[in-house]
Amino acid sequence: MDAPLDVVLIGGGIMSATLGSMLQQLEPGWRIRLVERLDTLAQESSDPWNNAGTGHSALCELNYTPEKPDGSIDITSAVKVNEQFQLSRQFWSFLVESGRIPDPKAFINPTPHMSFVWGAENVEYLRKRYEALRPHPLFAGMEFSDDPAVIRGWAATLIDGRTGDEPVAATFTTAGTDVDFGSLTRILTDQLVEGGAELQLGSQVTSLKKDAEGLWVVTGKKRATGEKFTLRSRFVFVGAGGGALTLLQKSGIKEIRGFGGFPVSGEFLRTRNPEVVRKHAAKVYGKPPVGAPPMSVPHLDTRVVDGSASLMFGPYAGFSPRFLKNGSLFDLFRSVRLHNLLPMIQVAFRNVSLVVYLVSQLAARRSTKFKELVAFMPEADPADWEKITAGQRVQVIKKDPEKGGVLQFGTEVVAAGDGTIAGLLGASPGASTTVAIMLDLMGRCFPDRMDAWGPVLDDMVPGHRSPLAKDPAAAAAHFERTDKTLQLNEGQQRASA
């Protein structure tokens, strides 16, 4: 029998690629194998057209800064998400500086981030949000304006065609980025393989069991031929996106009990018309419709994929019982267990507004959906835009001691008590905060190694011990270093402002 592997990574997306890359730096002698069910990498949530490419840093996403009952703005989540994204930037900078990523432009580009609202109440909200964020070191350089002429200078498409009868406002910062996580996944995986890791494509994992020796037995089959395979490993990471829930259920670990999933599909409108794309160079987030989930916040994004710029607007929510874009219509039903049935029923009753919103989105005509884009971009022409189907998102349903079943928007690490297996559930901000998630996961699964790994982690992710949010000088130094290394020249100008 072959010697057991040290690490098996299930799922060929940004999560597995990042964890594998970090572990290979920390333990160069470990045997690592990445197993992906499809024939190519990053075809689900990490694909640039499947929702995961915005470089979430809470610069423009309004759902991270809710208004409290007293009228003040809570920036706690925004600071946390931004801080987590900076850890990702630090790790990417380390890989560039060490020669493991030859060209950062292959996956990251400077792109202004904007928030844009209309209506007197929303304008006042955005003003208060700006005042709350402006003094913070992670949001330095952010600008606010309610002058249409100023906003037009930032993004003319938002203003051209408006009558001027309704108040508008926007915030603007050059600190934002556009990230192609599909490209980054392939870059990291190539480096993994060059470092000795093994890549196994077209292989679907069907079972996870622990043997008498305490090793994980990973079994599955080649999708093209049906040929079965078996792997034995000391540690397993389930980074299979929407497929993680059912695989963790198959593992039998008690920590997955009570978890369920609610799948939400989505669509975007996209234009590649050079004349339209040339007029808009920013990621612009607005306020979501009443009853819409946080993941459905409307945004008009500049996207750079394979060196070519496009614009994308959405998302338009939909429903599919699939847990993966390339999954089965029976995914949702197969995930139901006695231990998660009650939480799932409770969530259904407590989120009637979400169900109503999804039904309205499914029933909406193309012309109705296009009006949402026109609200952002008044002169948008339907002839320039095409519909694309985004990736699946499986929102976490979990037990809460006080509330029963709750629907959670975010990413959840589920790890066995002995640290031999772990996986991720949930969605946004996911990809952008991968490094922070993996640091948390490693602390939970390899607690006895963290001290020894400390010096290497300090090189890879200098801010993992001390938050930048509490140290303006460290934050400024961080931006100067990572802007230069990642060739984010516009961000470098912002950081020094």
UniProtKB/TrEMBL annotation:
Sorted UniProt keywords: FAD, Flavoprotein, Oxidoreductase, Tricarboxylic acid cycle
Listed EC numbers: 1.1.5.4
Cofactor dependence: FAD
Organism: Nocardioides zeae
The name this protein goes by in its record: Probable malate:quinone oxidoreductase
GO function terms (MF aspect): (S)-2-hydroxyglutarate dehydrogenase activity; L-malate dehydrogenase (quinone) activity
Family: Belongs to the MQO family.
Catalytic activity: (S)-malate + a quinone = a quinol + oxaloacetate
